[in-house]
Design a protein that fits this description.
- There is one protein chain.
- The protein is mostly helical.
- It has one domain.
- Helices cover 40% and strands 0% of the residues.
- The longest helix has 22 residues.
- The chain is elongated and about 35 Å long.
- It binds zinc ion.
- The site of zinc ion has 6 residues, from α2.
Amino acid sequence: MMLTMLVDLDHLLAIPVYDASRCSIGFHPLHQFVPIGLYLLACFHRKTRYIGIGLVIHMVLDSIDCQITNGIWFTLEVYA
Ligand SMILES: [Zn+2]
């Protein structure tokens, strides 16, 4: 379960690393909609179920954090 926190390493790729006004969903490479779809698929595969569930929970928490701080669920900002 803790392994799923590694997905937050992609936050470190962003400059600045932490920006309260930025929504991580749709911004970081591992927080895009395609990987999130893969995490959902992983939930249905026996071997990857726990990783998938952990990652989906992570995305949901990031999205809620985003909603609380910015009033949006995700950003469609192009990764530059
Ligand atoms: Zn995250």
